[in-house]
TrEMBL record:
Keywords from the named record: Signal
Protein name, as recorded: Porin
Signal sequence coordinates: 1-23
Matches recorded under InterPro entries: DcaP
Organism: Shewanella corallii
The organism's place on the tree of life at top rank: Bacteria
Matching Pfam families: DcaP
Amino acid sequence: MKQAKLAAAISAACVLASPMAAAETDFTFGGYIKADVMFSDYSNGAPASGQLSRQFYVPGTIYGDPNNGKQVVDFQARESRFNFKTVSDIGGHKVTAFIEMDFFTHSDGNERVSNSYSPRLRHAFVSYDNWLVGQTWSTFQNPGALPENLDFVGAADGTPFVRQSQVRYTNGNWQLSIENPETTVTPYGGGARVVSGSGWVPDFVARYNFKTSDGGKFALAGIARQLTLDQNGVDSTDLGYGVTFSGVIPVGDKDDFKFTATYGDGLGRYLALNYANAAVLNASGDLEAISSYAGFVSYRHWWNDQWRSSITLSGFKADNDVALTGGNVNETSYSGYINLLYSPIKPLTVGVEYMHATNERQNGFEGDLNRLMFSVKYVL
């Protein structure tokens, strides 16, 4: 008992002596618990248990294995997440720290006994007035425009979707950032993806956010990046660039229309969860950027204060030079979603969603996924 009291006294003294004690600090714990049940039908056979496409829809991962059968059901709580945030006023400066984790993408657990999965880092950053340093959404992405779907991303084919470390400066409507570079390459004639962390030039992003008088919220962003490969005797660079426009348009009292449209050369991993690579090697061992474009539209209708539905259409296309890439590379991806969500109380949502996705390679090989998903989500 004496040791416990001594430890408490020491802890209190440390807190009082810390610089944070002199600051006005708000502490927030948040996140949500979400449980999913997914009935999936894969046209070419299901991926193995625990694989990424069994957790959420990722374009390019739905081709599967005929030996696994076509119809599967998955129960999971992997999307559940928790976060911790502090906001302090220190000497007239606003300082924010934020960290968040969930349990997706890992296959280190199993569905036989414990269903135990490691946490993964989603966000970890600190901001000081206008500056942000750490890992969070890429400035090239507008997460506020993502549709309200039960599937984790919700419009995976048609949206930029990247979290990564960066340094960002915000001034009014403008945001400028330098972000982690990473190049994905298709070998000459086709083959397994090559991932290159070579080079020392970061990705540069500029974004302008604005609102309209009727409550619309929009973002226009551009990116410039150096595509680099320095491996196995190949040393080549090329320029990558892209532009994306996204927004949320209010309709009536509560409905809204969300959209994103993106185009670029060498976007690679920034678009459609890296469905296509940023560049391909030519016969001379030089990089050539691959053009791609994508987009989605989503309309959400509130039936009343507790019931709502969203319908979403999403698509992606890569302009592959078949003479360089070969035919066994991803070309197009489309998906559609419709759902019905019910919130008897504000923090709790119960819903059902149907989705269909089609992926096609350059040689015409195609894979389809049909999924019926039931979810329960409670926001902490």
